[in-house]
Amino acid sequence: MTQSLDDICQVRCIHTEKVEKARQYMLQDNIINSLAELFKCMGDPTRLKILHALQQQELCVCDLSVVVNSSESAVSHQLRLLRTQKLVKFRRDGKVIYYSLDDHHIGMLFNQGLEHVNE
Amino acid sequence: MTQSLDDICQVRCIHTEKVEKARQYMLQDNIINSLAELFKCMGDPTRLKILHALQQQELCVCDLSVVVNSSESAVSHQLRLLRTQKLVKFRRDGKVIYYSLDDHHIGMLFNQGLEHVNE
DNA sequence: CGTACACCTGAATTATTGTTCATATGTACA
DNA sequence: TGTACATATGAACAATAATTCAGGTGTACG
């Protein structure tokens, strides 16, 4: 059962109209959660390094593990996450699997983030 | 002591030139880490809801806790993180503290992320 | 076939993170 | 000064996530 805004605000709320407005504006939970998953994915140094390396060129797991200085197993686990979130895609060439960025948004997010970090 | 690329690649590496290229392209660790902090900050549903609500209008802690349906203490902890990462700023008006987005990049990151999520 | 190699996966361990609870700070106002 | 209220904070606990280790796929090639 959902509490009504009035029930809550009788007790603690200050700006009833602002809160009401914010509630109407608020995105659905499943959208917020997907978005959180996306940013969480980009919120790890190892994964960011992977993404940044792939911005430049496609690479195999073995190469990536050297570039990001992590074990192949760890990289493989991280790549699975990135795949699930559709941040990277891959193609098979014989025994080797080449990874690359899935989507132009990722590069843009990365660069936009960089601008913020560089003040 | 740092391993040289040759030492590593004698054993496991496939595409030496690609790896070398990727290594030169790679960002410094402190930059990658700052970037990871930024995205990590945006990688939590509660914090995303806070940010999204603040995209629309400034709000106080009390209001926010109702909007994101979380305790005031939890919201306050999250706001500290967002403050530290310079995602939000605040102004005091008597007893009440109003929070707002610090930087236009945040809104852009948010919207860019939304586009990815909506395929 | 069977071996070699690139990669994947599950379970266990360790490290991080989010929330709660109790308490502290700072401001307004009687 | 004392009380009320909005917010902040530290410590503790519970939930999640990252890495390692020990196998397990799938493909190439003799």
Quaternary state of this entry equals homodimer
Largest interface: A-B, 59 and 59 residues
Tally of strands of chain A: 3
Major beta sheet of chain A, specifics?
A: 3 strands, antiparallel
Describe this structure in words.
The structure is a homodimer of 119-residue chains. With 119 residues, chain A is mainly α. The first copy, chain A, has 2 domains: 1-41, no CATH class; 44-119, Orthogonal Bundle (Arc Repressor Mutant, subunit A), CATH 1.10.10. Chain A is built from 7 helices and 3 strands, in the order ααααβααββα. Chain A has a 3-stranded antiparallel sheet. Chain A starts with a helix and ends with a helix. The interface between A and B is large, with 59 and 59 residues. Chain B binds a DNA duplex (30 and 30 nucleotides) through helix 6.
Properties at a glance:
119 residues; mainly alpha; Arc Repressor Mutant, subunit A; 2 domains; 7 helices; 12% strand; elongated; disordered N terminus; DNA-binding
List the helices and strands and how they pair.
The structure is a homodimer of 119-residue chains.
Chain A: H1 5-11, H2 16-25, H3 29-41, H4 45-56, E1 59-60, H5 61-67, H6 72-84, E2 88-93, E3 96-101, H7 104-117
Antiparallel strand pairs in A: 1-3, 2-3
Helix pairs in contact in A: 5-6
Chain B binds a DNA duplex (30 and 30 nucleotides) through residues 14, 40, 44, 46, 60-62, 70-80, 92, 94-97.
How is this structure best summarized?
Two copies of one chain form a homodimer. The first copy, chain A, has 119 residues and is mainly alpha-helical. Chain A has seven helices and three strands.
